[in-house]
Amino acid sequence: MVSAASFSEKIAATSLGKDNLLSLCDTLACPAALIASLFAVGIRYEGELTAPYLMLAVMVFALTFPGDTRLQSNIASVLFDICVNWVWIAALLILTGYGTGYIEYFSHHDIKVWLWAAPLSEVGATVLLRLAAPALLTLQGPRQRAVIIGMNEQGIALARKIHETPLSRVELCGFVDSRNTERLNPKGEHKLLGDMSRIAQVIREQRISNIYLSLPMASQPRILKLLDDLKDTTASIYFVPDMFVTDLIQGRAGTVCGTPVISVCETPFSGFNGLLKRGSDILFSIGILLLIFPLLLLVAFAVKWTSPGPIIFKQRRYGLDGQEILVYKFRSMSVTEDGGVVTQATKGDSRITPLGALLRRTSLDELPQFVNVLQGRMSIVGPRPHAVAHNEMYRKLIKGYMVRHKVKPGITGWAQINGYRGETETLDKMQGRIDYDLDYLRNWSLRLDIRIILSTVKLVSKDQKAY
């Protein structure tokens, strides 16, 4: 399975630590580059920095700081991210400029030059920061030596992340655990420094600065004893909760009435992310509907002309929070099944009309769902909605099936571009689709949505899995 995390690179983007000078430089680099390019254009063509340029610089900084952390992302991902982000920022600035009349303070030539210079300056700033990263890391002094107490699943996962982050200030010295060494570390991949009874001695001998407690939450007496033993050291102590035992969906820390909590299953579209998702859905769906309006009329006429029945097939599906919604499709079958039992379409299905076969193969039958997006019932990208009858069947057979309904269903999704488009005739195939749906929820980003949309356009031109 290709994980969405490998595309979003969330681990690399968040693992340097807040006390790392590189993290600050990383979040400042691109906003500073955009402002520097703006100032360069102003001085080059205006001879000085006028008030409109200074005001625009303030707006740009407010929109872009803190910048995305890209220091450890691959180059292709960085270039794609810079282009996508700049399109949104530039579009917002231009629309605001026309709406307020502020754009008249700039010459069209200066605007065109800056629209090209700005993303190039971001690329240059990212390259320079990568070249300077080793020197900046050295300026911060020696790395912080660390030890993990508890060689268990979450402890080993933390060790792996530290080793995969060479620009982090943390230097992992090894583990402390009292259990059998051969059982804990059969391949010798991780260094065992000693057992719990000599923890204070290990801390002093290894000159440890950071201690990560990776012990089960049920081990409260043992944790309390360890904390007492560690009072004689100056090391910073961090608790790594054993949350790896469950499947986190958008797991993050928060507070409820001042009480710290960690979300185990949450929607990715809360707060600003929700506004961003809805705004992108509206903009994309309006643009697409305007482009395909003649095609909609042509398909509607063809459906009506070639077979008896309604043009639009309305089927009940589960939407956000498991609430029933009506989803629109061009009718592609001679029947309009929407009862307690719905049979999935299969290859050579006699119910599918000749025109319907073409519509389903090219996904043209899905086009009316852009109206569902404008209504707020669906998103362009999200888990594909299943018939209510299928939902009721699979929710009893697949663990976590209904979690996919924490977001609006989509016209296309992460599962569809990874081989799960069309018929899911076996339980294993439906399980695979759900796995990808949940992976999308864990790792959502606007960049991932755009990749799915572009991949879908490419896929429908050659895919033969939709019947």
Describe the protein.
- The chain has 467 residues and is α/β, with parallel strands linked by helices.
- It has 3 domains: 4-139, no CATH class; 144-245, Rossmann fold (3-Layer(aba) Sandwich), CATH 3.40.50.720; 272-460, no CATH class.
- Helices cover 49% and strands 11% of the residues.
- It has helices spanning 4-8, 10-14, 21-46, 51-64, 75-100, 108-139, 153-163, 181-184, 199-205, 220-229, 272-306, 354-362, 369-375, 388-394, 427-442, 446-460, and strands at residues 144-149, 170-176, 192-194, 210-213, 236-239, 253-256, 259-262, 312-318, 324-330, 379-381, 410-412.
- Helix 7 (153-163) links the parallel strand 1 and strand 2 (170-176).
- The chain is flat and about 85 Å long.
- Residues 9-15 have low confidence and may be disordered.
How is this fold's topology laid out?
Elements lengths: L3 H5 L1 H5 L6 H26 L4 H14 L10 H26 L7 H32 L4 E6 L3 H11 L6 E7 L4 H4 L7 E3 L4 H7 L4 E4 L6 H10 L6 E4 L13 E4 L2 E4 L9 H35 L5 E7 L5 E7 L23 H9 L6 H7 L3 E3 L6 H7 L15 E3 L14 H16 L3 H15 L7
Parallel strand pairs: 1-2, 1-4, 2-3, 4-5, 10-11
Antiparallel strand pairs: 6-7, 8-9
Helix pairs in contact: 3-4, 3-6, 5-6, 11-13
